[in-house]
């Protein structure tokens, strides 16, 4: 599951993580550029689920502090922390420059400190070939966001067979097509204003016309599938068939913990063994 405190309410962190674990999900991805201590309530409320940052922003983080936070949490909750790291977006960072260099330098700093973050304890938010290659070289793998199936196929080809590939997939559980697309467009509005994402989408069968005016039906349906839980599960299966190791499902359009949506997805995916 992929969500954020903005969506579920930070006060509901423990309950959300407990629900995800009870439903059989393996990883709880916490978005919103959170620092590692924000994972603590998720870990304290559960016994086995992995908590992951999706993503910690290099421009807003001190690598030495991040490494210290990782060491502390991993000592208390061994094998249950995944540090997702990203460079964010130029529209959101005034000093954004040379993102690949910035990421390399951040990883170098994580490695150089007194408590290095292990390579298999971190992954990188990656879209383009150079960041994907870096994620394979310096981390467990890649966590792409807001991508179609074509990108997942491309990412697997770029990464090769070994590294982890975990794309995020936003979805709307609503059988009313018009209502579902309206919900999806409201979610997509922010991302269609960020050139990292729009530039990437244009490489995988979409045009400027698809991006304009809130997104074409074709593009919205490809990036943010909607319908029954079974239809969402089928969309996730497409990413798995294209090379994803697991898919980070983000149920959008729900205020608070999306208990009904997560439960329906668990049933459709068969996670409740």
Query: CATH architecture, please?
Result: Alpha-Beta Barrel
Give the distance, in angstroms, between the N- and C-terminal Cα atoms: 17 Å
Structural class: alpha/beta
| Low-pLDDT segments, ≥5 res | none
Please summarize the sheet with the most strands.
Answer: 6 strands, parallel
- How much helicity do the residues have? 40-55%
* Integer-rounded radius of gyration: 18 Å
Number of strands: 11
3D shape: globular
Keywords for this structure?
single chain, alpha/beta, 6-stranded parallel sheet, 11 strands, 15% strand
Topology readout:
Layout (H helix, E strand, L loop, with lengths): L1 E3 H4 L4 H10 L4 E5 L8 H5 L5 E5 L1 E2 L5 H14 L4 E6 L12 H14 L9 E3 L4 H10 L2 E2 L6 H11 L4 E2 L2 E6 L3 H15 L3 H7 L6 H4 L5 H7 L2 E2 L1 H13 L6 E4 L7 H11 L4
Parallel strand pairs: 1-2, 2-3, 3-5, 4-5, 5-6, 7-8, 9-10, 9-11
Helix pairs in contact: 4-5, 12-13
Task: Give an overview in words.
There is one protein chain. The protein is an alpha/beta fold. It has one domain (2-269): TIM Barrel (Alpha-Beta Barrel), CATH 3.20.20.30. 46% of the residues lie in helices and 15% in strands. It has helices spanning 5-8, 13-22, 40-44, 63-76, 99-112, 129-138, 149-159, 177-191, 195-201, 208-211, 217-223, 229-241, 259-269, and strands spanning 2-4, 27-31, 50-54, 56-57, 81-86, 122-124, 141-142, 164-165, 168-173, 226-227, 248-251. The strands form three sheets. Strands 1, 2, 3, 4, 5 and 6 form a six-stranded parallel β-sheet that branches. Strand 5 (81-86), helix 5 and strand 6 (122-124) form a beta-alpha-beta unit. Helix 4 crosses helix 5 (99-112). The chain is globular. It starts with a strand and ends with a helix.
